[in-house]
Amino acid sequence: MPGRTPLSLEDNTPLDKGAVDVRARCGWVVRMVRLTAPGAPTLKQLAEAAGTNSARLHRLETGALRDGALLDACEEALGAETGSVRAAVDVTCRTFPADSPPDTRPGSPATGVRAVSDLTEALLDAADAGEVIAAGAWLRWSRAMAAAGAVGLPERLARPLVDRLVDELGRSVGPGYPVRYESLALLRSGPYGHLVVDAARAVVAEPDVQRVADLVSAVSEAVTADAVALAVDLLADDRVRVAEAGALAVENLAAVGPDPAGLWAQLVPSLVDAYVAGCDDPVRWEWLSHLLRLAPVALLRPHQARLPRPPAPKAAISDWSASRANAYWSTCEDLARRVCAEASVTYQPMVVRLLFDVAMSHHETRGVTSYMLVGAVPALVGPVADAVAEIAETHDDEVVRARAARRLRGALWGVLPARAEGWVDGPDPVLDATGLALAGAAGTRLDPAAYDDALADPAHRTAALFGLGMAGHPHLALLAADRPAGAGAGAVDPEVAGAARWWCRHGARVVR
Q1: The pTM is what?
Q2: Contact in structure between 108 and 102 (CB atoms under 8 Å)
Q3: pLDDT tens, position by position, 29-57
Q4: Which residues contact 260 (CB under 8 A, 6 or more apart)?
Q5: Is residue 510 classed as helix, strand or coil in its secondary structure?
Protein backbone atom coordinates (compact mmCIF):
# COMPACT_ATOMS: atom_id res chain seq x y z
CA MET A 1 0.00 0.00 0.00
CA PRO A 2 1.42 3.43 -0.88
CA GLY A 3 2.51 5.45 2.11
CA ARG A 4 0.89 8.64 3.28
CA THR A 5 1.63 11.58 1.03
CA PRO A 6 3.25 14.72 2.49
CA LEU A 7 0.04 16.72 2.37
CA SER A 8 -3.63 16.01 1.88
CA LEU A 9 -5.28 17.74 -1.04
CA GLU A 10 -8.83 18.82 -0.29
CA ASP A 11 -11.53 20.87 -1.98
CA ASN A 12 -13.00 23.07 0.74
CA THR A 13 -15.26 25.16 -1.48
CA PRO A 14 -18.93 25.30 -0.34
CA LEU A 15 -20.96 22.25 -1.26
CA ASP A 16 -23.97 24.24 -2.50
CA LYS A 17 -22.17 26.74 -4.73
CA GLY A 18 -21.05 26.45 -8.33
CA ALA A 19 -17.30 26.92 -7.96
CA VAL A 20 -14.80 24.19 -7.09
CA ASP A 21 -11.10 24.12 -6.20
CA VAL A 22 -9.82 23.24 -9.64
CA ARG A 23 -6.14 23.34 -8.66
CA ALA A 24 -6.61 20.89 -5.81
CA ARG A 25 -8.72 18.52 -7.91
CA CYS A 26 -6.36 18.46 -10.86
CA GLY A 27 -3.24 18.11 -8.73
CA TRP A 28 -4.86 15.33 -6.74
CA VAL A 29 -5.83 13.27 -9.78
CA VAL A 30 -2.27 13.38 -11.13
CA ARG A 31 -0.91 12.22 -7.78
CA MET A 32 -3.48 9.43 -7.50
CA VAL A 33 -2.67 8.13 -10.97
CA ARG A 34 0.97 7.84 -9.89
CA LEU A 35 0.26 6.26 -6.50
CA THR A 36 -2.09 3.65 -7.98
CA ALA A 37 -0.02 2.85 -11.07
CA PRO A 38 1.76 -0.54 -11.24
CA GLY A 39 4.72 -0.37 -8.89
CA ALA A 40 3.55 2.95 -7.41
CA PRO A 41 6.61 4.90 -8.59
CA THR A 42 8.01 7.54 -6.29
CA LEU A 43 7.89 11.20 -7.21
CA LYS A 44 11.57 11.07 -8.15
CA GLN A 45 11.14 7.96 -10.30
CA LEU A 46 8.26 9.42 -12.27
CA ALA A 47 10.03 12.76 -12.65
CA GLU A 48 13.03 11.02 -14.20
CA ALA A 49 10.83 8.91 -16.49
CA ALA A 50 8.88 12.01 -17.59
CA GLY A 51 12.01 14.05 -18.27
CA THR A 52 11.55 16.62 -15.51
CA ASN A 53 12.64 17.19 -11.94
CA SER A 54 10.95 16.32 -8.67
CA ALA A 55 10.22 19.93 -7.78
CA ARG A 56 8.27 20.60 -10.98
CA LEU A 57 6.36 17.32 -10.74
CA HIS A 58 5.53 18.11 -7.11
CA ARG A 59 4.05 21.42 -8.21
CA LEU A 60 1.95 19.58 -10.81
CA GLU A 61 0.73 17.11 -8.17
CA THR A 62 -0.23 19.82 -5.70
CA GLY A 63 -2.10 21.98 -8.18
CA ALA A 64 0.46 24.77 -8.08
CA LEU A 65 1.25 24.19 -11.77
CA ARG A 66 -0.75 23.29 -14.85
CA ASP A 67 1.57 21.85 -17.48
CA GLY A 68 -0.10 19.92 -20.28
CA ALA A 69 3.13 18.76 -21.88
CA LEU A 70 4.39 17.35 -18.58
CA LEU A 71 1.06 15.66 -18.00
CA ASP A 72 1.34 14.02 -21.42
CA ALA A 73 4.80 12.77 -20.48
CA CYS A 74 3.52 11.40 -17.17
CA GLU A 75 0.74 9.51 -18.94
CA GLU A 76 3.27 7.91 -21.25
CA ALA A 77 5.69 7.06 -18.44
CA LEU A 78 2.93 5.48 -16.35
CA GLY A 79 1.50 3.50 -19.24
CA ALA A 80 -1.85 5.29 -19.00
CA GLU A 81 -4.17 5.54 -21.99
CA THR A 82 -3.24 8.54 -24.15
CA GLY A 83 -5.13 11.60 -22.91
CA SER A 84 -6.98 9.72 -20.16
CA VAL A 85 -5.68 11.98 -17.39
CA ARG A 86 -5.17 15.19 -19.29
CA ALA A 87 -8.63 15.07 -20.84
CA ALA A 88 -10.24 14.96 -17.38
CA VAL A 89 -8.01 17.83 -16.23
CA ASP A 90 -8.64 19.98 -19.30
CA VAL A 91 -12.41 19.40 -19.27
CA THR A 92 -12.48 20.42 -15.60
CA CYS A 93 -10.46 23.55 -16.25
CA ARG A 94 -12.63 24.56 -19.21
CA THR A 95 -15.81 24.04 -17.19
CA PHE A 96 -14.65 26.33 -14.38
CA PRO A 97 -12.59 28.95 -16.24
CA ALA A 98 -12.63 31.61 -13.54
CA ASP A 99 -11.04 29.22 -11.04
CA SER A 100 -8.57 27.49 -13.37
CA PRO A 101 -4.87 28.22 -13.86
CA PRO A 102 -3.52 28.79 -17.38
CA ASP A 103 -1.72 25.91 -19.03
CA THR A 104 1.94 26.95 -18.99
CA ARG A 105 2.92 24.37 -21.61
CA PRO A 106 -0.03 23.04 -23.56
CA GLY A 107 2.34 21.19 -25.85
CA SER A 108 3.18 21.52 -29.51
CA PRO A 109 0.51 19.92 -31.67
CA ALA A 110 1.30 19.03 -35.25
CA THR A 111 0.89 22.10 -37.43
CA GLY A 112 2.98 21.46 -40.57
CA VAL A 113 1.54 20.26 -43.86
CA ARG A 114 3.14 16.82 -43.68
CA ALA A 115 2.25 16.22 -40.03
CA VAL A 116 -1.37 17.31 -40.41
CA SER A 117 -1.71 15.29 -43.60
CA ASP A 118 -0.37 12.16 -41.88
CA LEU A 119 -2.79 12.52 -38.97
CA THR A 120 -5.74 13.15 -41.26
CA GLU A 121 -4.95 10.38 -43.72
CA ALA A 122 -4.61 7.87 -40.88
CA LEU A 123 -8.09 8.75 -39.66
CA LEU A 124 -9.58 8.66 -43.16
CA ASP A 125 -7.99 5.27 -43.88
CA ALA A 126 -9.35 3.81 -40.62
CA ALA A 127 -12.78 5.27 -41.31
CA ASP A 128 -12.83 3.88 -44.85
CA ALA A 129 -11.89 0.45 -43.47
CA GLY A 130 -14.70 0.60 -40.94
CA GLU A 131 -12.25 0.44 -38.03
CA VAL A 132 -12.74 2.07 -34.65
CA ILE A 133 -10.30 4.97 -34.36
CA ALA A 134 -8.33 5.01 -31.13
CA ALA A 135 -9.26 7.85 -28.80
CA GLY A 136 -5.66 9.04 -28.64
CA ALA A 137 -5.56 9.40 -32.42
CA TRP A 138 -8.64 11.60 -32.28
CA LEU A 139 -7.02 13.75 -29.60
CA ARG A 140 -3.82 14.28 -31.59
CA TRP A 141 -5.82 15.26 -34.68
CA SER A 142 -8.15 17.58 -32.77
CA ARG A 143 -5.23 19.34 -31.12
CA ALA A 144 -3.73 19.91 -34.54
CA MET A 145 -6.99 21.21 -35.98
CA ALA A 146 -7.58 23.55 -33.02
CA ALA A 147 -4.04 24.95 -32.88
CA ALA A 148 -3.45 28.57 -33.75
CA GLY A 149 -1.87 28.85 -37.17
CA ALA A 150 -2.49 25.21 -38.02
CA VAL A 151 -2.77 24.04 -41.60
CA GLY A 152 -6.46 24.02 -42.48
CA LEU A 153 -8.44 21.29 -44.19
CA PRO A 154 -11.21 21.73 -46.72
CA GLU A 155 -14.52 21.32 -44.92
CA ARG A 156 -15.47 18.42 -47.18
CA LEU A 157 -12.56 16.48 -45.64
CA ALA A 158 -13.05 17.66 -42.07
CA ARG A 159 -16.82 17.22 -41.93
CA PRO A 160 -16.96 13.40 -42.29
CA LEU A 161 -14.28 13.06 -39.62
CA VAL A 162 -16.23 15.28 -37.24
CA ASP A 163 -19.30 13.14 -37.94
CA ARG A 164 -17.29 9.98 -37.23
CA LEU A 165 -15.96 11.39 -33.95
CA VAL A 166 -19.50 12.36 -32.94
CA ASP A 167 -20.69 8.81 -33.64
CA GLU A 168 -17.90 7.18 -31.64
CA LEU A 169 -18.30 9.58 -28.71
CA GLY A 170 -21.93 8.54 -28.33
CA ARG A 171 -20.88 4.91 -27.84
CA SER A 172 -17.64 5.34 -25.87
CA VAL A 173 -16.96 3.88 -22.45
CA GLY A 174 -13.96 3.84 -20.13
CA PRO A 175 -10.95 6.11 -20.74
CA GLY A 176 -11.94 6.64 -24.37
CA TYR A 177 -15.08 8.53 -23.36
CA PRO A 178 -13.49 11.65 -21.80
CA VAL A 179 -10.73 11.61 -24.41
CA ARG A 180 -13.21 11.68 -27.29
CA TYR A 181 -15.25 14.31 -25.48
CA GLU A 182 -12.17 16.48 -25.09
CA SER A 183 -11.33 15.92 -28.76
CA LEU A 184 -14.74 17.17 -29.86
CA ALA A 185 -14.60 20.05 -27.37
CA LEU A 186 -11.26 21.15 -28.84
CA LEU A 187 -12.75 21.15 -32.32
CA ARG A 188 -15.74 23.10 -31.07
CA SER A 189 -13.48 25.72 -29.49
CA GLY A 190 -11.37 26.16 -32.64
CA PRO A 191 -11.83 27.17 -36.26
CA TYR A 192 -13.95 24.10 -37.04
CA GLY A 193 -16.43 24.82 -34.25
CA HIS A 194 -19.27 25.47 -36.68
CA LEU A 195 -18.93 21.94 -38.03
CA VAL A 196 -19.65 20.57 -34.55
CA VAL A 197 -22.82 22.67 -34.39
CA ASP A 198 -23.81 21.47 -37.87
CA ALA A 199 -23.23 17.87 -36.79
CA ALA A 200 -25.37 18.37 -33.70
CA ARG A 201 -28.25 19.82 -35.67
CA ALA A 202 -28.08 16.92 -38.14
CA VAL A 203 -27.98 14.34 -35.36
CA VAL A 204 -30.92 15.70 -33.39
CA ALA A 205 -32.92 15.90 -36.63
CA GLU A 206 -32.85 12.08 -36.80
CA PRO A 207 -36.20 10.98 -35.34
CA ASP A 208 -34.76 7.83 -33.75
CA VAL A 209 -31.46 9.23 -32.47
CA GLN A 210 -30.49 7.72 -29.12
CA ARG A 211 -27.23 9.40 -28.06
CA VAL A 212 -27.14 13.20 -28.05
CA ALA A 213 -26.23 14.52 -24.58
CA ASP A 214 -22.44 14.48 -24.90
CA LEU A 215 -22.54 15.93 -28.40
CA VAL A 216 -24.77 18.82 -27.33
CA SER A 217 -22.62 19.38 -24.25
CA ALA A 218 -19.58 19.64 -26.52
CA VAL A 219 -21.42 22.26 -28.58
CA SER A 220 -21.91 24.25 -25.37
CA GLU A 221 -18.15 24.40 -24.75
CA ALA A 222 -18.14 27.63 -26.80
CA VAL A 223 -20.75 30.28 -26.08
CA THR A 224 -21.96 31.41 -29.48
CA ALA A 225 -25.36 32.48 -30.73
CA ASP A 226 -25.91 29.23 -32.61
CA ALA A 227 -25.03 27.15 -29.55
CA VAL A 228 -27.43 29.11 -27.33
CA ALA A 229 -30.18 28.82 -29.94
CA LEU A 230 -29.66 25.07 -30.26
CA ALA A 231 -29.79 24.49 -26.51
CA VAL A 232 -32.99 26.52 -26.13
CA ASP A 233 -34.62 24.82 -29.11
CA LEU A 234 -33.92 21.38 -27.65
CA LEU A 235 -35.72 22.20 -24.41
CA ALA A 236 -38.99 22.01 -26.33
CA ASP A 237 -38.16 18.80 -28.21
CA ASP A 238 -40.81 16.09 -27.97
CA ARG A 239 -38.16 13.49 -27.13
CA VAL A 240 -37.33 13.73 -23.44
CA ARG A 241 -33.75 12.49 -23.93
CA VAL A 242 -33.14 15.36 -26.37
CA ALA A 243 -34.72 17.91 -24.04
CA GLU A 244 -32.43 16.65 -21.25
CA ALA A 245 -29.45 17.28 -23.52
CA GLY A 246 -30.65 20.85 -24.03
CA ALA A 247 -30.86 21.37 -20.27
CA LEU A 248 -27.33 20.09 -19.74
CA ALA A 249 -26.10 22.41 -22.48
CA VAL A 250 -27.80 25.45 -20.92
CA GLU A 251 -26.07 24.82 -17.59
CA ASN A 252 -22.71 24.33 -19.24
CA LEU A 253 -23.07 27.47 -21.38
CA ALA A 254 -23.59 29.49 -18.22
CA ALA A 255 -20.56 27.86 -16.59
CA VAL A 256 -18.00 28.25 -19.36
CA GLY A 257 -18.97 31.64 -20.77
CA PRO A 258 -17.32 34.98 -19.97
CA ASP A 259 -20.59 36.66 -18.91
CA PRO A 260 -22.83 34.26 -16.97
CA ALA A 261 -25.12 37.03 -15.69
CA GLY A 262 -25.67 38.38 -19.18
CA LEU A 263 -26.34 34.91 -20.55
CA TRP A 264 -28.87 34.13 -17.80
CA ALA A 265 -30.63 37.43 -18.54
CA GLN A 266 -30.92 36.31 -22.15
CA LEU A 267 -32.03 32.78 -21.27
CA VAL A 268 -34.55 33.25 -18.45
CA PRO A 269 -37.54 34.27 -20.60
CA SER A 270 -37.01 31.24 -22.83
CA LEU A 271 -36.59 28.95 -19.83
CA VAL A 272 -39.85 30.19 -18.36
CA ASP A 273 -41.60 29.65 -21.69
CA ALA A 274 -40.26 26.09 -21.80
CA TYR A 275 -41.35 25.49 -18.19
CA VAL A 276 -44.88 26.71 -18.87
CA ALA A 277 -45.14 24.48 -21.93
CA GLY A 278 -43.46 21.36 -20.54
CA CYS A 279 -43.92 21.15 -16.77
CA ASP A 280 -46.74 18.60 -17.05
CA ASP A 281 -44.18 15.98 -18.10
CA PRO A 282 -42.42 14.73 -14.93
CA VAL A 283 -38.93 14.48 -16.43
CA ARG A 284 -39.10 17.86 -18.17
CA TRP A 285 -40.48 19.36 -14.96
CA GLU A 286 -37.43 18.15 -13.03
CA TRP A 287 -34.91 19.44 -15.59
CA LEU A 288 -36.58 22.79 -16.13
CA SER A 289 -36.96 23.23 -12.37
CA HIS A 290 -33.24 22.58 -12.10
CA LEU A 291 -32.45 25.31 -14.62
CA LEU A 292 -34.75 27.83 -12.95
CA ARG A 293 -33.00 27.20 -9.63
CA LEU A 294 -29.64 27.89 -11.24
CA ALA A 295 -30.83 31.21 -12.68
CA PRO A 296 -30.23 34.34 -10.57
CA VAL A 297 -33.26 34.95 -8.34
CA ALA A 298 -33.51 38.60 -9.34
CA LEU A 299 -33.87 37.66 -13.00
CA LEU A 300 -36.49 35.02 -12.30
CA ARG A 301 -38.62 37.04 -9.87
CA PRO A 302 -40.54 39.06 -12.52
CA HIS A 303 -41.64 35.78 -14.15
CA GLN A 304 -42.76 33.88 -11.04
CA ALA A 305 -46.45 34.58 -11.61
CA ARG A 306 -46.29 32.81 -14.98
CA LEU A 307 -45.22 29.47 -13.49
CA PRO A 308 -48.25 27.14 -13.50
CA ARG A 309 -46.87 24.92 -10.74
CA PRO A 310 -44.04 25.05 -8.19
CA PRO A 311 -40.65 23.61 -9.15
CA ALA A 312 -40.00 19.91 -8.65
CA PRO A 313 -38.82 18.77 -5.20
CA LYS A 314 -35.11 19.01 -4.55
CA ALA A 315 -32.86 16.98 -2.30
CA ALA A 316 -33.72 17.65 1.34
CA ILE A 317 -30.24 18.78 2.36
CA SER A 318 -30.70 21.29 5.18
CA ASP A 319 -27.08 21.47 6.35
CA TRP A 320 -24.57 22.06 3.56
CA SER A 321 -21.49 21.84 5.74
CA ALA A 322 -18.77 19.31 4.99
CA SER A 323 -19.16 17.81 8.46
CA ARG A 324 -20.90 15.04 10.38
CA ALA A 325 -23.76 17.48 10.97
CA ASN A 326 -24.63 16.93 7.30
CA ALA A 327 -26.00 13.39 7.03
CA TYR A 328 -25.51 13.40 3.25
CA TRP A 329 -21.85 14.27 3.66
CA SER A 330 -21.47 11.67 6.39
CA THR A 331 -22.77 8.98 4.06
CA CYS A 332 -20.14 9.90 1.48
CA GLU A 333 -17.41 10.08 4.11
CA ASP A 334 -18.17 6.57 5.35
CA LEU A 335 -18.30 5.20 1.81
CA ALA A 336 -15.08 7.01 0.86
CA ARG A 337 -13.19 5.19 3.62
CA ARG A 338 -14.31 1.91 2.10
CA VAL A 339 -13.41 3.09 -1.40
CA CYS A 340 -9.88 3.99 -0.34
CA ALA A 341 -9.40 0.70 1.47
CA GLU A 342 -10.55 -1.25 -1.57
CA ALA A 343 -8.24 0.78 -3.82
CA SER A 344 -5.33 0.22 -1.40
CA VAL A 345 -4.66 3.92 -0.83
CA THR A 346 -4.61 5.93 2.33
CA TYR A 347 -7.79 7.82 3.19
CA GLN A 348 -8.34 10.63 0.69
CA PRO A 349 -10.64 13.53 1.67
CA MET A 350 -10.93 14.36 -2.02
CA VAL A 351 -12.71 11.05 -2.61
CA VAL A 352 -15.43 12.19 -0.19
CA ARG A 353 -15.90 15.39 -2.12
CA LEU A 354 -15.93 13.75 -5.55
CA LEU A 355 -18.34 11.08 -4.34
CA PHE A 356 -20.66 13.77 -2.97
CA ASP A 357 -20.54 15.72 -6.22
CA VAL A 358 -21.11 12.62 -8.38
CA ALA A 359 -24.02 11.21 -6.39
CA MET A 360 -25.62 14.16 -4.62
CA SER A 361 -24.71 17.59 -5.96
CA HIS A 362 -27.43 19.35 -7.91
CA HIS A 363 -24.82 20.95 -10.17
CA GLU A 364 -24.42 18.85 -13.31
CA THR A 365 -21.14 20.59 -14.10
CA ARG A 366 -19.75 19.30 -10.81
CA GLY A 367 -21.17 15.83 -11.24
CA VAL A 368 -19.83 15.33 -14.77
CA THR A 369 -16.34 16.70 -14.15
CA SER A 370 -16.12 14.72 -10.91
CA TYR A 371 -16.90 11.40 -12.55
CA MET A 372 -14.41 12.18 -15.30
CA LEU A 373 -11.71 12.79 -12.68
CA VAL A 374 -12.59 9.52 -10.96
CA GLY A 375 -12.45 7.76 -14.32
CA ALA A 376 -8.87 8.97 -14.80
CA VAL A 377 -7.79 6.78 -11.85
CA PRO A 378 -8.58 3.18 -12.86
CA ALA A 379 -8.01 1.84 -9.34
CA LEU A 380 -10.85 4.00 -8.03
CA VAL A 381 -13.45 3.32 -10.70
CA GLY A 382 -14.80 0.01 -9.40
CA PRO A 383 -14.92 1.01 -5.72
CA VAL A 384 -16.51 4.40 -6.47
CA ALA A 385 -19.06 2.78 -8.79
CA ASP A 386 -20.00 0.40 -5.98
CA ALA A 387 -20.40 3.34 -3.58
CA VAL A 388 -22.60 5.33 -5.97
CA ALA A 389 -24.67 2.21 -6.58
CA GLU A 390 -25.21 1.83 -2.84
CA ILE A 391 -26.44 5.42 -2.61
CA ALA A 392 -28.75 4.85 -5.58
CA GLU A 393 -30.29 1.83 -3.89
CA THR A 394 -30.37 2.66 -0.19
CA HIS A 395 -30.34 6.39 0.45
CA ASP A 396 -33.34 7.83 2.26
CA ASP A 397 -33.76 10.77 -0.15
CA GLU A 398 -35.67 9.80 -3.29
CA VAL A 399 -34.20 12.71 -5.26
CA VAL A 400 -30.66 11.63 -4.38
CA ARG A 401 -31.37 8.00 -5.23
CA ALA A 402 -32.58 8.96 -8.70
CA ARG A 403 -29.68 11.37 -9.22
CA ALA A 404 -27.08 8.81 -8.17
CA ALA A 405 -28.58 6.23 -10.55
CA ARG A 406 -28.57 8.69 -13.44
CA ARG A 407 -24.99 9.80 -12.82
CA LEU A 408 -23.85 6.20 -12.49
CA ARG A 409 -25.21 5.60 -15.99
CA GLY A 410 -23.78 8.85 -17.31
CA ALA A 411 -20.24 8.23 -16.02
CA LEU A 412 -19.75 5.53 -18.69
CA TRP A 413 -17.06 3.86 -16.63
CA GLY A 414 -17.84 0.57 -18.36
CA VAL A 415 -18.21 -1.41 -15.13
CA LEU A 416 -21.18 -3.28 -13.68
CA PRO A 417 -21.26 -3.02 -9.87
CA ALA A 418 -22.21 -6.30 -8.20
CA ARG A 419 -25.11 -4.59 -6.45
CA ALA A 420 -26.51 -3.41 -9.79
CA GLU A 421 -26.69 -6.95 -11.17
CA GLY A 422 -29.53 -7.58 -8.76
CA TRP A 423 -31.49 -4.56 -9.98
CA VAL A 424 -32.46 -6.19 -13.26
CA ASP A 425 -36.03 -7.47 -13.15
CA GLY A 426 -36.34 -6.05 -9.66
CA PRO A 427 -39.31 -4.11 -8.27
CA ASP A 428 -37.79 -0.64 -8.70
CA PRO A 429 -38.19 0.48 -12.34
CA VAL A 430 -35.47 3.13 -12.05
CA LEU A 431 -32.93 0.63 -10.73
CA ASP A 432 -34.08 -2.00 -13.24
CA ALA A 433 -33.44 0.38 -16.14
CA THR A 434 -30.15 1.51 -14.61
CA GLY A 435 -28.99 -2.08 -14.25
CA LEU A 436 -29.80 -2.75 -17.90
CA ALA A 437 -27.87 0.35 -18.99
CA LEU A 438 -24.86 -0.48 -16.83
CA ALA A 439 -24.79 -4.03 -18.15
CA GLY A 440 -24.72 -2.71 -21.69
CA ALA A 441 -21.93 -0.23 -20.95
CA ALA A 442 -19.96 -3.13 -19.49
CA GLY A 443 -20.59 -5.23 -22.60
CA THR A 444 -22.83 -7.73 -20.80
CA ARG A 445 -25.68 -9.30 -22.76
CA LEU A 446 -28.65 -10.36 -20.66
CA ASP A 447 -31.53 -12.67 -21.48
CA PRO A 448 -33.87 -10.85 -23.90
CA ALA A 449 -36.74 -11.20 -21.46
CA ALA A 450 -34.83 -9.06 -18.94
CA TYR A 451 -35.43 -6.00 -21.10
CA ASP A 452 -39.18 -6.46 -21.60
CA ASP A 453 -40.55 -4.44 -18.67
CA ALA A 454 -38.30 -1.45 -19.33
CA LEU A 455 -38.99 -1.52 -23.09
CA ALA A 456 -42.70 -1.36 -22.36
CA ASP A 457 -42.29 1.69 -20.11
CA PRO A 458 -41.79 4.95 -22.06
CA ALA A 459 -39.97 6.45 -19.06
CA HIS A 460 -37.28 3.75 -19.08
CA ARG A 461 -37.10 2.28 -22.57
CA THR A 462 -34.21 4.53 -23.62
CA ALA A 463 -32.06 2.98 -20.88
CA ALA A 464 -33.09 -0.53 -21.91
CA LEU A 465 -32.31 0.19 -25.55
CA PHE A 466 -28.96 1.64 -24.49
CA GLY A 467 -28.22 -1.62 -22.68
CA LEU A 468 -29.12 -3.66 -25.76
CA GLY A 469 -27.28 -1.37 -28.15
CA MET A 470 -24.04 -0.94 -26.22
CA ALA A 471 -23.78 -4.69 -25.73
CA GLY A 472 -24.44 -5.33 -29.42
CA HIS A 473 -27.29 -7.63 -28.40
CA PRO A 474 -28.65 -9.84 -31.20
CA HIS A 475 -32.17 -9.19 -29.89
CA LEU A 476 -31.92 -5.74 -31.46
CA ALA A 477 -32.23 -7.23 -34.93
CA LEU A 478 -35.59 -8.76 -34.03
CA LEU A 479 -36.85 -5.50 -32.59
CA ALA A 480 -35.59 -3.55 -35.59
CA ALA A 481 -37.36 -5.91 -37.99
CA ASP A 482 -40.59 -5.68 -35.93
CA ARG A 483 -40.32 -9.40 -35.09
CA PRO A 484 -41.07 -9.69 -31.37
CA ALA A 485 -39.77 -12.71 -29.52
CA GLY A 486 -42.05 -15.15 -27.78
CA ALA A 487 -45.22 -16.89 -28.79
CA GLY A 488 -48.19 -14.60 -29.00
CA ALA A 489 -46.11 -11.44 -28.63
CA GLY A 490 -47.65 -8.31 -30.07
CA ALA A 491 -46.14 -5.92 -32.56
CA VAL A 492 -43.02 -4.02 -31.54
CA ASP A 493 -43.72 -0.45 -30.47
CA PRO A 494 -42.71 1.83 -33.40
CA GLU A 495 -40.49 3.93 -31.10
CA VAL A 496 -38.67 0.80 -29.92
CA ALA A 497 -38.28 -0.52 -33.47
CA GLY A 498 -36.90 2.81 -34.69
CA ALA A 499 -34.42 3.01 -31.81
CA ALA A 500 -33.32 -0.57 -32.45
CA ARG A 501 -32.65 0.28 -36.09
CA TRP A 502 -30.57 3.28 -34.94
CA TRP A 503 -28.42 1.04 -32.75
CA CYS A 504 -28.07 -1.56 -35.52
CA ARG A 505 -26.79 1.15 -37.87
CA HIS A 506 -24.32 2.67 -35.42
CA GLY A 507 -23.03 -0.39 -33.59
CA ALA A 508 -22.06 -1.37 -30.07
CA ARG A 509 -19.87 0.28 -27.44
CA VAL A 510 -16.42 1.62 -28.26
CA VAL A 511 -13.80 0.69 -25.66
CA ARG A 512 -10.47 1.91 -27.10
Answers
A1: 0.95
A2: no
A3: 999 999 999 999 999 999 999 999 999 99
A4: 254
A5: strand
